[in-house]
Amino acid sequence: MAMMQFELVSPERKLASVEASEVQIPGAEGDFTAMPDHAPVITTLRPGYLTVVSASGTEQYFVTGGFAEVSGESTTVLAERAYPKADMTAELQAELVAEAEAAHAAAGTDISAKLAADMADGIAL
Amino acid sequence: MPNLSDLKNRIASVKSTRKITKAMQMVAAAKLRRAQEAAEAGRPYAERFNAVMGGLAASVGSSEGAPRLLAGTGSDKTHLLVVMTAERGLCGGFNGNIAKTARAAAQKLIAEGKTVKILTVGKKGRETIKRDLGDHFVGHVDLSEVKRVGYSDAAGIAQDVLARFEAGEFDVATLFYARFESVISQIPTAQQIIPADFEASSEESTIYDYEPSEEEILADLLPRGVATQIFSALLENGASEQGARMSAMDNATRNAGDMIDKLTIQYNRTRQAVITNELIEIISGAEAL
């Protein structure tokens, strides 16, 4: 099966760097699945879960704030915050939602409202 | 000639100083390794980010509706200097060099008739430039409570800077920090962050589809770009600080060693002189009988 290089990086560290056969990405304008030879796309991210299918199994990460760069041979996701699904505790979820809502209260724009709502939805998955 | 017990005390005190500087050097070496690892871990993100931003900026940058963070406000009257230094001293010329670079830049801008505002990060630099540029200070970020610099610290500083930019407080922002070259060399660097100055990638890479539009992505990513640049600067600065401290403490330890050698020789000579003196006294006393 065709594989592509997948990388998930946050400002503080590289979370994943594997050969993947498919990556499901929560894009700002809708979720999509990137597979090898996908058309080159750059999209911003919506808070939500990203799923990587590789030879060693399926892994999920929670990502928010950043973008994904998809090309035929590689997929790179740069997320301001990224956590493996196993690290997502109830407290962390509550904290992220509260943070997004506080940011919305401060900014008061449509975009921030959407982000806060996305955060609440995306996290509930 | 100093007497013997004085010399003995001095040797003891220099020895305990040497112990302290030696310990500080080893602590700095351990911290340096961690700081370097952090800086390296942060590099892939910053590199990819800048590459994508460079591509985006090249395609949107020249158009009419380019975001102000990229295109600038159209004037360059007011400059914000973000001066990043350490929270602690005893690290050789580290803080002084950054402060010197920032001061020179500030004075040049003032001489050109520009307005200068200074935001300081780290206590030491603030103290150093307070004397001649104190009335240009607009704020201070205190990181003395922060054990390990995280992205959230950088995001906090970025938010502060962006809020000031939105409020029209300045036109151009420049970061001052020390780039880590090696343990013995840290280079004070000035880096312009607003308007964003991305290196346009030379290789004409793949043509991407953008979702949402290029403009929207850029508007979303530019503020993050400011935070990313501040974060890498903080990491570089952290590594530089520890490197500077390590070499400063290494020098101090060596100096203390030299001093101990000299004092020990002096101590031995003095002791021998005292003995010789006593002998002369005894012998001349015996001869007089």
Task: Explain what this protein looks like in three dimensions.
The complex is a heterodimer of chains A (125) and B (289). Chain A has 125 residues and is of the alpha+beta class. Chain A contains two helices and seven strands, in the order βββββββαα. Chain A has a five-stranded mixed beta barrel. In chain A, α1 runs antiparallel to α2 (110-124). Chain A starts with a strand and ends with a helix. Chain B is of the alpha/beta class and 289 residues long. Chain B is built from six helices and six strands, in the order ααβαβαβαβββα. Chain B has a five-stranded mixed sheet with strand order 3-2-1-4-5, sandwiched between helices. In chain B, α3 links the parallel β1 and β2 (115-121). In chain B, α1 runs antiparallel to α6 (214-288) and α3 packs parallel to α4. Chain B starts with a helix and ends with a helix. Chains A and B meet through β4, β6 and β7 of A and α1, α5, β6 and α6 of B.
Keywords:
A: 125 residues; five-stranded mixed barrel; B: 289 residues; alpha/beta; five-stranded mixed beta sheet; 63% helix
Write the layout of secondary structure elements.
The complex is a heterodimer of chains A (125) and B (289).
Chain A: E1 4-9, E2 14-27, E3 30-34, E4 41-44, E5 48-54, E6 57-70, E7 74-84, H1 90-107, H2 110-124
Parallel strand pairs in A: 1-7
Antiparallel strand pairs in A: 1-2, 2-3, 2-5, 4-6, 5-6, 6-7
Helix pairs in contact in A: 1-2
Chain B: H1 4-60, H2 68-71, E1 78-84, H3 94-111, E2 115-121, H4 123-133, E3 137-141, H5 151-166, E4 172-182, E5 185-194, E6 209-211, H6 214-288
Parallel strand pairs in B: 1-2, 1-4, 2-3
Antiparallel strand pairs in B: 4-5
Helix pairs in contact in B: 1-6, 3-4, 5-6
